[in-house]
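Hypothesis: this fold can be encoded by more than one sequence.
Test: take the structure tokens below, design a sequence, compare later.
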């Protein structure tokens, strides 16, 4: 896991996403470390059975760039 994402996960141990079904939109909470293990995260809504896939690679890349712009560098 990316060092910057590890810091994010330590500061934010849980993260929430809405269901991808436009008729449902129920919030689901997950452990951040589970969400950012790879470049994408997929979950099945327990209310409507819709499967939602989230591309985490862009978040990871943007988070690292933002921290570096602020002068935060991790060894």
């Amino acid at each position: 896991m990316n060092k910057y994402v590890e810091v994010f996960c330590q500061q934010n141990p849980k993260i929430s996403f809405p269901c991808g079904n436009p008729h449902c939109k129920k919030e689901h909470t997950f452990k951040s470390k589970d969400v950012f293990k790879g470049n994408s995260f997929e979950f099945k809504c327990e209310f409507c059975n819709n499967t939602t896939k989230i591309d985490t690679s862009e978040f990871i890349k943007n988070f690292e760039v933002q921290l570096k712009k602020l002068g935060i560098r991790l060894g």
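The beta strands are 14-18, 27-31, 40-44, 51-55. The first helix runs from residue 3 to 11.
Hypothesis status: open.
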